[in-house]
Amino acid sequence: MKGDANMDQFDELVRCYPVLLKCRQEFDDVVSALIKCFEANHRLYIIGNGGSASDALHISGELVKSFILNRSLEKSFIKRLNNPELVENLQGALPAIALVENTALSTAFANDCNPDYIYAQQIYAYAREGDCVIGISTSGNSKNIISGIETAKGRGAVSIGLTGKSGGKLKGLCDHCICVPEIETYKIQELHLPVYHAICLALEQHFWGKKV
Fold first, then answer.
1. Which residues lie closer than 8 Å to 200 by C-beta, 6 or more apart?
2. What does the alpha-carbon distance between residue 109 and residue 116 come to, in Å, rounded to a whole number?
3. To the nearest whole number, what is the mean pLDDT of the chain?
């Protein structure tokens, strides 16, 4: 792994947030799973409710464009493109899609079907074996997140949870689950942000090969 990305970013995370030290193994497992996913040209899908929906969008934003490092484009893409202006203005990217914004689909599904399964429906449509799905739930028990993760497993995708101290149902369901050591919703969310920032930094460092 280029530059021991996991170790560098987790050490910095713990320096700022010592309470997260107990999440060391889970952090490593999640970063490793995502690296494997992206190296095999698979995709990441992210789901959440309320503030966690905003976190899903935030994670996607950090991965689909440069975060800290300058990201080079694939040489094969540059060769096929033959457009210097596009090459100058595009950035290297990882395919991370937040499934929280399709208003037309969400309202149609809520009107016609059971809204608890809107994420499950999208994951059934999009996810394939080898993809990853991150479900963010502060309680670990949100029904639409649980059903989404269950559908991911049915599709052969790797399931990742980001939740609070108890882990809720997500902890036992997901292949990997980071349970930050807080029980109040806003405090859990306050720790989720540095955790997923560190994950995004570790991924960027791995794929673009420089120290952050």
1. 59, 62, 63, 67
2. 10
3. 95
